[in-house]
Amino acid sequence: MSETTHSPKITALAISFNEEANVKRYVESLYFADEIIFVDSESTDQTVAIAQSMGVKVINRPFTNFSEQRNFAIEQATHDWIVFFDLDEIITPELEQEIRATVQNPGEKNAFFVKRTFHFMGKRIRFGGWQNDKAIRLFNKNHGTYNGNLVHEEVKSDGKVGILKNRLNHYSYKSFDNYNDKLNLYSKLQALNLYQKKKRPNAYHFFIRPLYRFLWQYLFRLGIFDGKEGFILAYVHSFSVFKRYLQLWMMYRKID
């Protein structure tokens, strides 16, 4: 980790669960950070052991939802400037240099989006809406926090937000079952969020919303040009919409 004292110090944060395949690459890409902290959701593989062997501070915290995990992690940070990447995101040398330069001279901005290049089943996905994918990954903790969403959480900044020029590579696909399990978790948390807001599902949610999601992603956002991978992505994401409302319906019916 960096020993530089001439620029603002950086805390790198991550939430982890069974990420042993990604830990080494992830930590090595964050050599410029002054501290690295993982909030781990009771991993059963070697995630914690590998991280600790590389000097990462690991705090165990049972998973509740994504916003709570991330906001808890922010509270553990020693330094004001935070980089908060996922373990399946690769920080390129160009992005790392831009982050360091930005922290030294952020101007009037307190947070920065990073554009993401999405890879699925070994292929770079160029369409389907993924071409515009970005998330805030660099921010000042005194001016930003996660918005409380159970899933698809976002940093809300009380100041101006910029966009970094360099992209990161996002490899969220490990296997089809793993990707599907991830979407199932997202659907369940989204359903819980709707349940807490007392939203009730109807025929529109079961039939029209999933179909619209498929058409939006595959045709309107040109996912068709990503070939078989584009079709699979549109299909599984549309099914996850159906699953969201099915799980919401089951919550009202008290069905496990």
Automatic annotation (TrEMBL):
InterPro entries registered for this protein in UniProt: Glyco_trans_2-like, Nucleotide-diphossugar_trans
A GO MF term: transferase activity
Name this protein carries in UniProt: Glycosyltransferase family 2 protein
Family: Belongs to the glycosyltransferase 2 family. WaaE/KdtX subfamily.
Presence of the UniProt keyword Coiled coil in the record: no
UniProt xrefs under Pfam families: Glycos_transf_2
Keyword Transferase: yes
Keywords linked to the UniProt accession: Transferase
Domain Glycosyltransferase 2-like: 15-120
